[in-house]
Amino acid sequence: MSPPKLATWQLRARFAAGLSAMYASEVPAYATLVEVSGQVNSDYLARHSSAQRLGSIQRITAERHGAIRVGSPAELAAVADLFAAFGMLPVGYYDLRSAQSPIPVVSTAFRPIDANELAHNPFRVFTSMLATRDPRYFDADLRTRVEAFLGRRQLFDPALLAQARRIAADGGCDVDQARPFVAAAVAAFALSHEPIDKFWYDELSRVSAVAADIAGVSSTHINHLTPRVLDIDDLYSRMTARGITMIDAIQGPPRTDGPDVLLRQTSFRALAEPRLFRAECGAVGPGTLRVRFGEVEARGVALTPQGRQRYDAAMAAPEPASTWSDHFPSTDEEMAAQGLAYYRGGDPSAPIVYEDFLPASAAGIFRSNLDSETKAADAEDNSCYDSGWLAGAIDRDIHDPYALYEALSKEVPQ
Predict the structure, then answer these.
(1) Is 267 in a helix, a strand, or coil?
(2) This protein's superkingdom (predicted)?
(3) Which of 20, 35, 108, 116 has the smallest CB count inside 10 Å?
(4) What is this structure's pTM?
């Protein structure tokens, strides 16, 4: 009798759980974040009958998003191959260079897109690629050297990628294959203990700390993992009470009395982690880096393009909370009637959860955990980065989030 076959979502759940366990061992404060998130969710569920309007407590408890960074289109294509085995496809294009606090990366999010897959396990990974083509950050000489460095390193074992392609084509694999495959996939994102070339890392840091984190080391790693919480303001207070230093603000929309929309995020400050550095003379000695942190998120209903226009207008105000009611009504019924948010079958009692990201918030979280600003030269951006370019670079469609939400809104609520 052949061993049972695991479906794609089961592989994804194991992958997410494996990464979470590994990251908790590497960054103990993340384990505290998960613990406090569970307490907040349990208390919120006990007090609010509508707590599961945007997903079951089982989904919310297991839900994570991760973030990784890579250096080149080839590396991003390899990530796409690996994540496809877990049913995670590229959705959305995010240009963090255009944020108020610019970061020299372009990004997409790998996640499930089918409603049932999302309900089983919505694990998503925000994946950023270094924008080496942009001369504002990388002159011709530095770009050549960075791309040569990236071309010499190998993030993933070719055998792992070959197996991932087979599993993606087969729509899953048996239990005996799953264990070593998931373990190898998780291990690929472990923090490396290889000594870091200090001169090279410092040179890249003068451009951007993110550039150094991507192209100044020999491997990629989990930059942060993010549990989902039902009351992020309560979470922020509880973490602070435990002596965990949080960033200064909660990113995204303000807290209001109306329906939660899109995404609110915050994090504890990146911690100084011990790393080994190699000096120009070849000597290896201890040092620290602050690049990894623990993020937490609260998700709301997905907005339509019209709703997103109102959101952008609201967030442009000096104090968005004070004028929020000028842009958004206070009930799901009104939101649905005005075409501002997505609901299954148009039913206001069946909101569709926002599964994606906000570039301003992502850049804000990144910036809040860096020690220095990104340095941009006064040069013309002729890099031609956009969603179409990224799709061509990795030879995969970049799914349009609005099209996915529109399709979900046609479904009848269950």
Answers:
(1) strand
(2) Bacteria
(3) 116
(4) 0.93
In this structure, the chain runs to a length of 414
Q: Which of 49, 53, 118 is nearest to 349 (CA)?
A: 53
Which CATH number among 3.10.180.80, 1.10.1040.10, 3.40.50.1000, 3.40.50.720 corresponds to the domain 5-410? Answer: 3.10.180.80
d(CA 336, CA 297): 24
User: What single letter denotes the amino acid at residue 136?
Assistant: R
